[in-house]
Please model this.
Amino acid sequence: MTKLGFFTLVFSLVCLSCFARAEQLVDQRLVYSSDNKHADYLLTLSALKNVNAQIVADTELRLRGRVQRQTWEFNSGTSIADARAMLDAHLNLSGSERKLFACRGLACGSSNAWANQRFNIKQLYGLDASQRYQVWQLEQASEVLVLYFVQRGNRRIYAQLDRISLSAEQQLTPTAEAVSAELQSRGYLVFKQDQQGSAFEDELLARVVDALRRKPYSRFYVVGHSYDQRSDTLNRQRALEQAERIKQLLVGAGLDAGRFSVDSVGALVPRSLPGQNRVELVQK
Model:
């Protein structure tokens, strides 16, 4: 497979309409495909480990909703290095999704466990060091995208792509490990407000506190964004109040106030999250 062909595949895999356009993909083989509108799904948000001859995970959630699944086999000729580089470059979706968990290589646990205990697809049993597992909550907050990627001993590369459409009452929160990874890779984290614009995500705040306790020397800007008012001055004032509120919540949870500098841009930055005010935690 050429690099161009692989790029086309990766882009198609991660776009929101990938299941509708799957039959148009070329230069790879669709091994399995299913679409169950009323399915149970065990979402794993931590590495797998063997405890007393049982495969377990520290964090797992039982979801119910529409589950669309695809297993892809890549043609020979694409190196694992090229595949990983392209995934790193192009698995960011629109940029507004939230990463709930990610692991790679030996840190994910046994590939045999993922293949046979979680996905139940034997072709996914590959080299432990080549694994990549990632979970995102998409911008709509009602869809979860799961990707498992591995290379077998015969150098064949496989990707498992699961998309779960959640019911309205199901909400997910990233782990502290995922928060740390997002800050490391992007340099910022977004706090969204509820529909009334009056509250932030309490569970996310708890995970952020856990993550920042593990990095006691890191420093951050807390930056407010507001688009509700007609006046730039009022927008900046409102955004500053919200940023200060986030800082106080973090400090109230036991973090050092000196680690955070509050600022506001009001409506001066384009809406990266349409229709939502936000506060961003930006690493210095």
In short: Residues 1-26 have pLDDT under 50 and may be disordered. The longest strand covers residues 28-44. The first helix runs from residue 3 to 14.
